[in-house]
Every structure is written in C-alpha cells, then in structure tokens.
Amino acid sequence: MFNDFYQNKRVLVTGHTGFKGSWLSLWLHELGANVTGFALPPSTNPSHFNLISLDNLVGHFEGDIRDLETIKHVFDIAKPELIFHLAAQALVRDSYNDPKTTFDTNIGGTVNVLEAIRQCPSVKAVVVITSDKCYDNREWVWGYRENDPLGGHDPYSASKGAAEIVAAAYQRSYFDKNGQGPHLGLATARAGNVIGGGDWAKDRIIPDCIRALTTDQPIIIRNPQATRPWQHVLDPLAGYLLLAARLLENPDKYSGAWNFGPQTYDQTTVRELAERLITTWGSGTIQSPPAKKAPHEAHLLHLSIDKAIFDLKWQPVLDSSSAINWTVDWYKSWHHSQETRQELSVLQIRKFAELAALKGQMLS
Ligand SMILES: NC(=O)c1ccc[n+]([C@@H]2O[C@H](COP(=O)([O-])OP(=O)(O)OC[C@H]3O[C@@H](n4cnc5c(N)ncnc54)[C@H](O)[C@@H]3O)[C@@H](O)[C@H]2O)c1
Questions:
Q1: Which residue ranges have their beta carbon within 6 Å of ligand 1?
Q2: Which domains does the chain show, CATH number per domain?
Q3: Coil/strand/helix, residue 269
C-alpha cells in the first residue's frame, strides 16, 4: 500500500501508549520505519500497547507532553523526519471533570510539539490529530467540511478546536513557504469515533460492551440514539499515513485540515452499534437507564470526506459491518487466550493493507 515509502524513515509518534497510537506505531514498524514513541505510561490494564509488546519494537520514551524541555530532549535523540501527534486527554467525560488538564494537554501539548518542531531541523512533515468534535456542532444532518467554523461545546471538543487554530497559526507563521521557517508540511486530521481491538478506555462504547459481554453483564448505554461517524481504527490511520507521505513530497499542496470518516450512508446510532456487536459476539443484552441530568454530549455528528477522497485518493476500506466483525474477532481471540496479541494485530494490519491496495488506495 505504501511501497517502501516508510522504510527506514525516522518517525515520532506522540501518544503511542494509547489505542490509536499503539496501532499506528505497530503499522509503522511493520512498514520498516524507525519509530520513536513519546507518551505517559498506558492508562488502562490491559492495554494494546502492552499486549503487543510495543516497547520491544519502538524507541519508548515516557514523559509529559506539557513539559517542553522533555519533548525537545526526545526530539534531539530521535531526530524525526515525520511526526504524528496523537497525545491528548481524549475523553469527553474526563474533560468535564478536569478541564484544566484537558486544555493544558491538548492545547499546551500541541504548542509544545510545534515549538519543538520549529527548533528541530530534521523534521519535514507533521500530522496533528485533532477530532471531528473540533467543529461548531449544529446537530444538523449535513457532514461538516474542512472549511466549516470550529467550535466545541464541552472542554474536550473546545480543546480540539483550539488545537486546530494553534496548528493553523504555526503553519501560516512559520512552516508555510512565506513563513519565518523552517518550511515543512503541517496537516491536521479530524476523524470520528474509531473502533477496533485493544481499546479499554472508560466511557467508550466498544470497551464498555466488551467489559459487559466478557462478564455476562448487560451493556448500559447512555445515549442510544446518538449518531457518530464510527469506523475501524485502521481506516483513519491509513489516511494519516497517506497524508504524511503526501506532505513530505508536496508540503504546500497538502498542508491544512483533512476529515477522515465513514461514507455518509454508513452512519449508525449507538444502539444499532451495540446490537450489531451483540449479534456478532453471539450473546448479550442492552439496558438504557432512564435519562437523567448528564453533561451535554453531541447527538448528531458526521463528516464530509470529499476532500480526502478527491485529493488524497483515500476512502474507507471497512464498512461498519466489517469494522464490527474485525473488532469482535480481535476481542474474542484475546478473551480466549490472553497472551500477546502482536501477531493478531499484525495480521489485521496486513489484511487491511491488501484490501486497501485492491481498492486502489496506495502511494504511486
Ligand atoms: N478514539 C477515538 O475515537 C478518537 C476520535 C477522534 C479523535 N481522537 C484523537 O486521537 C488521538 C488518540 O486517541 P486515543 O483514542 O488513542 O486515546 P488514548 O486515550 O487511548 O491515548 C492517548 C495517548 O495520549 C497520551 N497522553 C495523554 N496525556 C498525556 C500527557 N500529558 N503527556 C504525554 N502523553 C499523554 C497517553 O499516554 C496515550 O498514549 C487523541 O488525540 C484523540 O483526541 C480519538
């Protein structure tokens, strides 16, 4: 899918101990990249990071993204050419409980990464991972486009909108061909909710379902009618990898914001997702507690992916049914023998890359 583009490339992934970062780092390792990861220790037990023994495959640095000197030190050692910035406080509910940590991590952390890049001559391109929640959500049926207004009702969403503004300011002021330098490619990636094996975060639908199903408890869902742009974790990661490669070859053309989400016809509610997961798992029940006063959460949110389809030649590879099947396969395999899952994750990555290449999604 990527030919040998990533072979021997020095790549830094922030947030590599998390769900998406661990899959991305494993994929990059598979592609022959020389990967360095920077993050806090895994926050869940089990974690995909530990189950795939990622610390044996990549340069593993633990530290706080809020500390600029530590980040600069890691940049000095790793001398990265490409950066994927994923480290963040990624949970909406936690952002209500601790907005300051969320803002410091998601906005201040992004500033720190961009500052370190500004002072690191080896860097050629960076992808900053924000979220579909960066948009001013009007709860309308149309998909948000990259030029729609940013916003964010809750602290998490606002922090991601703000990270977008920070990235755009650095791009215009420094990294653009007319900026103060260095000239490099900077893109932001806005994906929706991802599913896949190896996520154990709290207050996320798939981990909540798996915790319930493996302990014979009913699945409790808070917002059964909420619609989200669910997709398999490997789909947006493929988009990030394509984007970084394009940024390296043509920074001026590919810098800017990019949405990655499912096709418009493939959006489901939380309840439908849980029901389909139960069918695939083979057992399980759902309970929806009576609505009580709870922090605001978006009900309807989806993304227009036209820009990525036309300009990046990216498109979703797995529809929601396949994404659920792959996710259940992963957790079932883990549930039956709780050994290292590295082989299983690698197999899913290889199978995904074959399907993507068949769909014509590859670097030319
Ligand atoms: N999971 C989703 O559905 C989803 C959807 C849209 C956007 N995103 C974004 O994708 C990125 C990755 O999400 P995820 O689901 O893997 O989250 P996650 O919570 O599993 O992982 C977060 C990562 O960030 C690191 N981190 C958090 N605070 C840090 C700090 N102060 N210093 C250093 N590292 C810190 C963690 O150690 C971890 O490695 C985040 O930026 C998130 O906002 C995720």
A1: 15, 17-21, 39-40, 64-66, 86-90, 105, 129, 131, 191, 193-194, 201
A2: 10-291+299-358 (3.40.50.720)
A3: strand
